[in-house]
Amino acid sequence: MNNLDYGIIGNCRSAALVSKTGSIDWLCLPEFDSPSVFAKLLDDKIGGSFEILVDEDYAITQRYKDHTAILITKFSDGDNIFEVRDFMPRYHKAGGGYHAPPELVRYIRHIKGKPKFRVAYDPKLEYAIGETKTYVKHNFIASLTHAEKFDTAFLYTSFNKNAVIEGREIDLTEDGFFLLGYNEKILHPNTQKMYLELERTKVYWLNWSNNTPTYRKYNEEIHRSAVTLKLLSYDKTGAVLAAATTSLPETIGEVRNWDYRFCWIRDASMVIKVVSDLGHEKIAKRYLQFIIDLMPDKDEKLQIMYGINKEKKLTEETLDHLDGYMGSKPVRIGNAAYQQRQHDIYGILMDVIYEQLKRFSTDIENGEEIWSITKGIVWIVEKHWQEPDKGIWEFRSEDRHFTFSKVLCWTAVDRAIKVAGIMNKNHKIGKWKPLRDEIWDSIQEKAWNEEVGAYTQSYGTKHLDASVLLMESYGCVNANDERFISTVNAIGRELKHEGLLYRYKNEDDFGLPSSSFTVCTFWYINSLFKIGETEKAEAHFEELLGYSNHLGLFSEDLDFKTKRLLGNFPQAYSHLALIECAINFSKKHSEEKILESMRE
Known about the structure:
By secondary structure, the chain is of the alpha+beta class. The protein has two domains: about 200 residues, putative glycoside hydrolase family protein from bacillus halodurans (Beta-galactosidase, Chain A, domain 5); about 375 residues, Glycosyltransferase (Alpha/alpha barrel). Helix content is about 35%, strand content about 20%.
């Protein structure tokens, strides 16, 4: 049983998770990081949900409308059939910009016969703290709470409002709708208007997806992952979320439960690089502006993460009244990791800046600000690269000299040199090259362990770490470098378990990890591909794709034994790595096809 059998819907302002039986178990309004309206995901007794209930005779299937974020749940007993089309409206406004209100629409499509269903509508505002009261009004159903603070939600429907609230059986003879909004509507919605919202939203997503190239192989997986990454972007500021949820545990019953509804510079920058490679330029430009807006002071260090509205303080709290996902406490909101020092973010950010300049050099806005950021990053790296940090995995105990952090410090200076070339600031190139060489010499001397035959997790240890596989991706080493090949093989031997990879095997602040961080297996597959083990890599990739949920979505982690999805969901990191692997294999198949046709 895969307990994260959910689909995500959204409109780049907020998102909801819909179970494979059509229950909305997670929704925050008006924005991604707002308090929840439904949180059954985190407490199946008091969290609140919005369910469509049918007799056991009905078979329930679920799919996305191709190349869109519209989720279709179909209910059929053979003679009686209907669909629920769940979406959050998003489309271009006539005067420019996007219509993306804090609303969720459930369009009920009658297909055949006289289907019957009941509704369990149970909103629990403000993370279900205190009581939420629901009332039937003349034009809508209103829910409100003022336990912690005042909050409201409004449900509009074409069905009998009392029947909806009381959970009475509803006979479906024609199309109908539910519209759940954060704000009271000025114009009263009806079924025809909701159908128009559905069609406009469908056209928006089809147009957006049309900019994603078509691939010879794994095209569906690439497109679904691309839409998922878009759903995790926040249009207002350009931020990109790590995931749409909080506190889904890495291991059931443990305390590794974090709020991921924030913008990690690392995750977001990697997402932007992949999405812009797919041809989606606006999202990249908005993210660059997000970064520019965050760095007003030339000597201001970047935080590793920010709120989606550029908040710098993300105070961590626990919601002790919630039982947590399958009893995994605590439920957290906010994230104390924002205070950590991680040197890798500078290299990852500089890599994105360089890629965007390379792509849009004649069309880039804010060139002066970007050059200031570039100089500032080199200054910070030069001053701090020799200091230990918390590393990519955010160890909450002592700081260490993590190899990945040093590699990304090298990357920061390397990309800054390339940016200087693009901007004709040649006097900086000669000044910065010795720094790049100094960092590289340090990595070669202190990160390589001859006894282990690999670059290790941190200086002076024998511990292996999957993040070191990214050395080749960032151009620090070549794929045919003997040390890199040896590192890939050592990591495969030591960290691979039950077909998945550990991030690392040394104990951290919470003991030995007991689940696999999904992105690490993708990194390993990509590294196998790069060193020429292409058949082995693709077989491994096919196996890993089989562990996604019924809609092709991945969370942060996979249980080694059962392969169930764990951790926050859906995870941007997992889907960007999936896209990278899939594109490599697709290009390989295209090249093989060309060679075949030439031989013919």
